[in-house]
Amino acid sequence: MVHVAALFRHPVKGFTPEAVDNLVVQDDGRVAGDRVLAIRFADAAEPEERDGLDHWPKSRGLALMDFPSLARLDLAYDHAARRVTISAEGAVLVDAGIDDAGRRAIADAVTEFMRSTPDGRRLDRAGRLPLAVVGDGAGSRFQDRARGFVSLHGRGSVEAVDAAITGASVDDRRFRSNIVVDGLPAWDELGWRGRVRIGDVAFSVEKPIGRCLATHADPDTGERDAPVLKTLTRVFGHDEPTLGILLLPVEEGGRIRVGDVVELLG
C-alpha cells in the first residue's frame, strides 16, 4: 500500500526542515508554514515578477545550492511567536523575533557564521551584504518556483540513489520535499499522470523536479560528499537529474497526515 511516510516543511528557506505529523495544504497550492522567511542579498530584498506573480529566485539569497555550510546550522522557528533560534554545534548564535531589531540580529549572526566557513567568500560579491531577512513569518512565499507547488518524492527512489553512492549517506532530507511516500518501486512516482489523492487533498500531477547542487550537501555537516546529479544521469539514465514531482490541489487544499493512503485517480 502506498502511503505517506514522512512530512516536512521548511520555515526559513535553505535552513533546517521541520519533520511534522501533518501538513495543511493551502488552496493556493503551498504548504502552510513552509518557506515563510528567507535571507536575501542586499540587492535582492524585493521580489522579481514572473508570469504575473512575485518570485524570489534562490540564486539571489542564501540557499544550499551555493552555500552548503548552511546545513551546519540548526534552526528552530516558533510559528506562534514568530521567533527564530539558530544554533551551531549546540551553541545558540541568535534567538530573536522578526521585528526590525530581530531581523538585524538574525542577519548579523548568520553573516558572522558564514564568514567563518569556506562559503564566506561568496558574500564578498557586490550587492550581497548586508543580508536581509524577508517575509512576514506566516505566508508561504519563498518556494523555488513562482507558482509554489507541493513537492513529493518516493522513498524508494532515494534509497536507490543511496545504494548507488559509496562513502556517503543519502536520505530524504537532501531533497527537501514536503511529502515522502513509501510502498512503491524506485522512480514509480515519475510516471504518475493525472490526479492523485493524499489525505484530504486531490492533486493534479504537474511535472518532475529537476535537481541542483543542494542535493550534494550532507544535511548535517554541509560537506558536498555525494555526487547526486551525476548519479541520476549516469547510473539511472535520466536525461536531466530528476527526483520527485510537483503537485497542485485540484480545487481546494486540506490536511495530509503521516500514514495517509496515496490513491492514484488517473
Description:
There is one protein chain. This protein has 266 residues and is an alpha+beta fold. It has a single domain (3-264), classed as Beta Barrel (M1 Pyruvate Kinase, Domain 3), CATH 2.40.33. Helix content is 13%, strand content 31%. A hairpin with a 4-residue loop joins strand 7 and strand 8. The model has no long low-confidence stretch (mean pLDDT 95). Pfam families: MOSC (PF03473).
In short:
This protein has 266 residues and is α+β, with helices and mostly antiparallel strands. It has three helices and 17 strands. It has helices at residues 100-115, 155-164, 228-235, and strands at 3-9, 18-20, 22-25, 38-40, 48-50, 53-55, 73-78, 83-88, 91-97, 132-134, 150-154, 179-182, 195-198, 201-210, 242-249, 254-257, 262-264.
What is this structure's SSE topology?
Layout: E1 3-9, E2 18-20, E3 22-25, E4 38-40, E5 48-50, E6 53-55, E7 73-78, E8 83-88, E9 91-97, H1 100-115, E10 132-134, E11 150-154, H2 155-164, E12 179-182, E13 195-198, E14 201-210, H3 228-235, E15 242-249, E16 254-257, E17 262-264
Parallel strand pairs: 11-12
Antiparallel strand pairs: 1-2, 1-12, 3-16, 4-10, 5-6, 7-8, 8-9, 11-15, 13-14, 13-17, 14-15
Protein name: MOSC domain-containing protein
Pfam families: MOSC (PF03473)
InterPro entries: MoCF_Sase_C (IPR005302), Pyrv_Knase-like_insert_dom_sf (IPR011037)
Shape: globular
Would you list the SSEs in sequence order as H and E? EEEEEEEEEHEEHEEEHEEE
What share of the residues does DSSP label as strand, in percent?
25-35%
The CATH topology turns out to be: M1 Pyruvate Kinase, Domain 3
Number of H- or I-type helical stretches: 3
* Most strands sheet: 8 strands, mixed
Helix percentage range: 10-25%
Q: What CATH first level would be assigned? A: Mainly Beta
Structural class: alpha+beta
Number of strands: 17
From the N-terminal CA to the C-terminal CA, the straight-line distance is: 17 Å
Taking strands numbered 1, 2, ... along the chain, how are they ordered across the largest sheet? 2-1-12-11-15-14-13-17
**Rg of Cα set:** 18 Å
Protein name: MOSC domain-containing protein
Domain MOSC: 116-265
